[in-house]
Design goal:
four-stranded antiparallel β-sheet; six-stranded mixed β-barrel
């Protein structure tokens, strides 16, 4: 008799039990895919951080601002190729709950520090020449239906204008494309000079500096030089790598990666117990049948692989369905959550780990019952009929 036919028959012997075990595996791997996508979204900034960039902020807190004059002094340090600056604008479109990552900056230094942003040359020149112009990510522009040349009102929850109003108007002069899968295209940038002249307070202050350095291996050394330059001044600084800065910023919301891993370990362990118990119970129920099979010539090795194949087949089918559903859900959610989770994707690495876990679940949950079936004594097995 064909082994595959026996495996299929044994799996469908108790249809309800097999169905619920399979559903638990489907849900577990659906959860695995969704959490993997969520973890990638929260770590996107870290993965995109440049190894050749440093961030300089106020020593006490990012909320405290730094003088614009610090930029020229930092630029004089050996190993620093370029310096740009940014300030958190806290912009929103139409409604305060439509928050947008927005930053006033210097266009020329911005381009040299962040060369991975691709902008059409004619659009770049138009933005550079227009003091009230805006450079927006393509995903951001598409999500709100913005078009190049459109006049766009943006509110700020922090920065009033000199006339007392919190509404700022920009012209969308350019749209950028982020290089690399999952690049953040949900931001916009505008001229610092326009912002500095029009705001009601904080003139000649910036939020933080971004330094592009020639040799990433000297990052610690250069960071210490920058901070030493402003030591004992009214506004001391703290400099770190861009990756360290993004990690610290994300850490304010908790270690998402660790949380995801803890959940997955708990889910996998619980699932292992459920699937293992199902296989063990299935083998116990057909002890006498296994004895008959051995009597008619089925080898111990064949019995081992048949029981193990049952576990693997159930795990692969259910786990595969769970991963496929996760991919479908994430693809469907991308357009909905793009404004605040632009990196919500299931990466090939997550899928590869998912496949390995599917196989591991099938092997581990079926190994002990398979070994017991292989070592089953024929006389004792037949005696249980």
């Amino acid at each position: 008799m064909n082994s595959l036919h026996l495996i299929r028959k044994n799996l469908t012997r108790k249809k309800t039990r097999t169905l619920f075990t399979g559903l638990s595996i489907v849900v577990a791997f659906l959860l695995f895919g969704l959490l993997g996508a969520l973890g990638h979204a929260f770590s996107l900034g870290v993965s995109l951080a440049g190894a050749d960039r440093l961030i300089t902020i106020h020593k006490v807190t990012l909320i405290e601002l730094l003088p614009i004059s610090y930029g020229d002094r930092i630029r004089q340090i050996d190993g620093v190729e370029e310096v740009s600056h940014y300030t958190w604008f806290a912009g929103y479109y139409q409604e305060p709950n439509r928050q947008i990552a927005s930053f006033p900056t210097d266009p020329d230094t911005f381009k040299r520090v962040y060369s991975e942003f691709e902008v059409a040359p004619e659009q770049w020149e138009a933005w550079r020449a227009n003091r009230s112009g805006m450079l927006a990510g393509r995903a951001l522009a598409q999500s709100y239906g913005w078009e190049v040349g459109q006049r766009i009102p943006i509110g700020s929850t922090i920065w009033p204008k000199t006339d007392g109003g919190y509404s700022w108007e920009f012209t969308l002069d350019a749209v950028y494309d982020g290089v690399g899968n999952g690049s953040d295209e949900q931001q916009f940038y505008f001229h610092y000079e326009y912002f500095n002249e029009a705001r009601a307070f904080g003139q000649d202050l910036v939020g933080w500096y971004v330094l592009k350095i020639a040799d990433p291996d000297r990052s610690d050394e250069i960071a210490k030089e920058v901070d030493a330059l402003f030591a004992n001044s009214p506004r001391e600084t703290k400099t770190s790598t861009e990756k360290g800065f993004v990690q610290a910023f994300a850490g304010q919301m908790g270690d998402i990666g660790a949380i995801v891993n803890y959940i997955l370990v708990a889910v996998f362990f619980t699932l292992l117990l459920v699937a293992g118990n199902t296989m063990a119970q299935s083998v116990r129920e057909r002890t006498s049948e296994l004895g008959v099979m051995k009597t008619v010539g089925f080898s111990d090795r064949r019995i081992l692989w048949m029981v193990l194949a049952e576990s693997l087949l159930l795990s692969v089918i259910a786990g595969g369905i769970g991963l496929a559903l996760a991919v479908g859900f994430v693809n469907g959610l991308q357009s909905v959550v793009a404004r605040f989770l632009p990196g919500l994707i299931i990466t090939p690495q997550v899928l590869a780990v998912g496949v390995l876990l599917v196989l591991a679940l099938g092997i581990v949950s079926g190994l002990v019952p398979a070994l017991r079936a292989m070592r089953l004594d024929v006389v004792k097995a037949l005696a249980r009929r």
